[in-house]
Amino acid sequence: MLTDREVLSTINMLRSEHLDVRTVTLGINLFDCASHDFDVFEVKLRSKIRKYAKRLVETCDAVGDRYGIPVVNKRISISPMGTVGASFSRDQMVRACQVLDECAKEVGVDFIGGFGALVEKGITPGERNLIDSLPEALATTDRICSSINVGSTKSGINMDAVSLMGRKIVEVAQATADRDGIGCAKLVVFCNIPQDVPFMAGAYLGVGEPDVVIDVGVSGPGVVNKALQRAIAESGRRLTLSEIAEVIKHTAYKVTRVGELIGRGVAKEMNIPFGVADLSLAPTPAVGDSVGEIFQTLGLSSIGAPGSTAVLAMLNDAVKKGGVFASGHVGGLSGAFIPVSEDSAIEAAARTGELTMEKLEAMTCVCSVGLDMIALPGDTSAETIAAMIADEAAIGMINSKSTAVRVIPVPGKKVGDVAVFGGLLGEAAIIRAPGGAAADSSSFIEFGGRIPAPIHSLRN
User: Fold this and answer.
1) Predicted confidence (pLDDT) per residue in 218-261, tens digit
2) Of 68, 268, 296, 300, which has the maximum CB count within 10 A?
3) Whether 301 contacts 355, CB under 8 Å
4) Which fold has domain 19-191?
5) Kind of pairing, strands 156-158 and 450-451?
6) Which residues are paired to 149 by β-bridges?
7) Which residues, listed in sequence order, are joined to residue 144 by a DSSP beta bridge?
8) Please, which residues have CB within 8 angstroms of residue 316's CB and are 6 or more apart in sequence?
């Protein structure tokens, strides 16, 4: 239970500290829409999305207004299209993506996630057709996100899929060159992807999920930062890191309670089961809503300075502990995100060189995701990107955690130039790829095959 003082502090979070529910995501199972006849599939797809999603936006707004808590994004996640459309050709996959985009616009949601594939052990013909369709599919749609899982602790890393995704990321960037390669901002490559992520671009509905479900993604890096600043100012002394971790934990508890309140309210109004609360600290480009600013509050000159990995580890752990106490159904990624373009303080540190690619990679060992929303020079090779994916997948595989890569090789731009994506995607200075221009990983990527799963994958 919250004390009166904690209730008042939560109200203040809503009024002045950027506390919001970042997303309510409606998961829709599409396996019962599958058909070798595309026209039949399209009719079933449109019908099911209309049936369950037509009231999503108005319900989120009504529940948010009732409690005075804004729901920033309303989204849909679907079963992985690479499996649902197993019989589709490449051109049919493009059309499926376009139909999904039309459905998203019709029901008014911001994004639909799940136009993706699970290829950690091998690639089926349908999944290969989906991956081949990505450049055209993402260039001709506005609200579709794609996630491709190329590895897991149980399966190892499918290096053939890694190599393929390196090439496709370059092709997607070229297909959206007129918009600074924005298609890549809607494409993420995972290892150990969770089945219930409500955040984009990784959202999809796993095969073990209900037919329809409401998941909620809460956020609040600005809230955590303000709570830390208050605690430090009011203590009259230097707090220990143990005490700071407690402040983060208690704040995460309150934020998660707010998110679950909204998620359960929407689920009840729509007569749909409530799934999980993902309590990730997801920043926005707005000043005051930054994960990076927390590092400065805790005594570092900026994120990227020595000590950053330790601070991020403490932050991630305290957020999880507070959230788990607040909700019986925590899921998704749940921790702290470090998306470069989407966080003003992180982007500033990358722009000045205080935060390098090597330090970012080190920090992904303890954050919730991985290399996220990073703008690279347009001439970065497909092999270099594939090797970056392999490195992140290895971190996830060995440590039994989710890792991912969402990088944008911006066509025609070089280190120091700026790519502008707009909205929550923000903007980012182009930074060098790991190892610089002289680095060459092509011979390694050419080996192909599968990196075996680690010995601890044999637990049962």
Assistant:
1) 877 888 888 898 888 888 778 999 999 999 998 888 888 888 88
2) 300
3) no
4) Anaerobic Ribonucleotide-triphosphate Reductase Large Chain (3.20.70)
5) antiparallel
6) 118, 190
7) 112
8) 335, 336, 366, 367, 368
